[in-house]
Amino acid sequence: MARGYPRHFGGRTSVNPGFLIKDPRSRAGSRLSGATASQERLAFLNEASTRIGGTLDLAQTCREVLDVAVPRCADAGGIMVQERLITEGEFPARPNDGAALVRRVATAVAVENPFDWDRAFPVGEVAVYPPFLPQGQAMATARTVLVPRLDQGVGDDNAKAFGRDVIAKLLPGCSFLVAPLLARGNVLGFFVLVREPSSEAFQDADVALVEELAARTAICIDNARLYARERRTALALQSSLLPARLKAPPGLEVAHRYLPAGDLAGVGGDWFDVIPLAGERTALVVGDVMGHGVRAAATMGQLRTATQTLASLDLDPAELLYRLDRVADRLDLDQIATCLYARYDVAAGTVQIASAGHLPPVLVRPDGVAETLPVVPGPPLGIGSEQYELCEFALPPGGLLALYTDGLVEGREWNIDEGLAKLRALLTGPPHGIERICDMVIRTQCPHSDRDDIALLLAKAV
Q1: Do residue 179 and residue 260 come from a single domain?
Q2: Cis-peptide into 71, omega within 30 deg
Q3: pLDDT for 204-239, tens place per residue?
Q4: SS3 category, 146
Q5: 3-class DSSP state for residue 370?
Q6: Which of 40, 165, 240, 292 lies most in the core, judged by the most C-beta atoms within 10 Å?
Q7: What is the domain extent for residue 432?
Q8: pLDDT of residue 231
Q9: Is the domain of 343 the same as that of 376?
Q10: Is 142 helix (H, G, I), strand (E, B) or coil?
Q11: Pair 280, 392 in one domain
Q12: Are the C-beta atoms of 351 and 343 separated by less than 8 Å?
């Protein structure tokens, strides 16, 4: 059984999950040797396939691989991945000498002196392996390198390259096998396995087994890389499209929260906006493009930009949504999008609202009573509505308007009507600070990770 172990830094203890310690006594009965039957090797690979790649977390995948390989294949092992793959999700150009910057993501040992191995090969280290080392050769040639027994010179070269004398003590006499991690013709890093001098040396029959395990590992790492890159792209896109900071409009105090869904993409099409208008008026907008990921975020950005442009024409909410619907139709959207547009007039103390298939806002009156406003919803955007209905309500000083997306009021444990009732109950009562109300609503309404995106915009008349 693998386990992390305590590491001490200045009197503080922590556990490094990337360093796995296995019982060295277990390797005697479980070791796959050169004489192992092909059926047993196939069974090992089948078992490995079920135990690795269950998540899209690169570090977790590497730990799973080493948990499988040590001590079945080796006494110690490590996985190094190119640094640019981890930080940027991109394939760097492969230098001819193999001198690429790589990070040690995980290590596993089944030895009597695990702490020496950790000092020699620390998890998280970023390094360049010179071409005269087996690791550099494997990356440069994209071919597996087998050294039946390492001589003292190789141990000394490694120790000199990384400035750690303990390496020169550990490696001499060990059997060494380095397999490049190849995916779609690119070298992602390398998978290194080591057998101590007291163990049987690696043989040619071991190469095919380790290369197959390395190939499956590389596929899992590449999948994790693609996921991480898409998620970074989506988050960067969405953060650039949503307002980073909202200015306090005339006569209003505003607060907002945005929570992406807890799914793979981690980003979606919900948006909100506060747009200053002429004559001390303010537009409050919330919208929802169904779906998740980069595509939904890109559609959201187009609709948000179009809404801002139309708002500058000083249209009433119904007319604005009518024109936004026409814009959505020209964009040829095949995703359903809803939008609620409200225009607050501080002088009149009123708010005009129109809805394109969106949930109605909740109004909290100055006496603390919350109610759902009877806004008549029109069709979602892009369907081709002839008109949207304009509704007008009083918003006196002390009144609070809550605009939101359906992720706030709909979940596995309740339907929308129940969610709306819970939201009204939360908002009813004595007045609180608007930021505190935001936190309270989010904390209470979305306690689970299996939810949709959530956008919440609160506006309080002052």
Answers
A1: no
A2: yes
A3: 889 999 999 999 999 999 998 888 877 777 667 766
A4: strand
A5: strand
A6: 292
A7: 242-461
A8: 73
A9: yes
A10: coil
A11: yes
A12: yes
